[in-house]
Amino acid sequence: MIIRKAGMIDMQNMLAQFCMHQLECAPVGEIRMLHPGSGNAYNYFRDKINEANMHTSIQKAYAAMVTQRNDVLLVTPDSQAWRGDLNATGAALTWAKQNTHILGMGPGELGGYQRARFSHSGYTMANFMTLSGASNTFKNLRWMHGSATGGASDTTLMTITGAGNKFEWVNFAGPMDATQSASADYIGVYINGGSSNYFRKCLFGTQNAIQRSGANCMLKIAGSGGLNVFEDCIFRSNSLTSTTPYFINWA
After folding, report:
1. Cβ atoms within 10 Å of 86's Cβ, excluding its own
2. Which of 195, 174, 57, 87 is nearest to 132 (CA)?
3. pTM of this prediction?
């Protein structure tokens, strides 16, 4: 038991160092992990991290994190089924906390193939998340938005109303369904009043073969928010046979 406790302490220190490096800050608060309940990452970490800090649901992980404490959620390099406020697949989540951080356990890259990813296959997903909190970090992640089940009802990947949040090496991957891509209502990221958010080396769009055919956009900015910064980002649109889609709607 003593050996195991020492091993757990060493692992906690190692993860803390990783998080501090990724977030470029110190110290970090409680470290939690999101996993699908199986796989190599889960099998390795399950006896090395406090069981109460291991979660199979984004909603439960969010509920356990403490605002303004620099708590960190590590996402294993797996496809995570999104579960929102009601802890139900297909339900949206309102992220209202401050200074909390989600880090994907994979390399950051602009190609849009981050393995720490969220999906909703088989469920309608009108909006993955409304980010109303401030000063949160999202890094090395991919949201995969669109399914045959939801179709045109999968309207918005993410809505941002909060301020001072940071997205780095994030792929906002959508639309991923032909019916969804034909809808004029589709929006990738909707910044509605949120200000001073920072996007660095993010990919808006996806590398799939779905062609956008509706008069929709990959980014919409509206409301009173200002000073949203986009540095070294890529906006990828596959619209070979249509002239109606556009990249940014500065409403």
Report:
1. 11
2. 195
3. 0.93
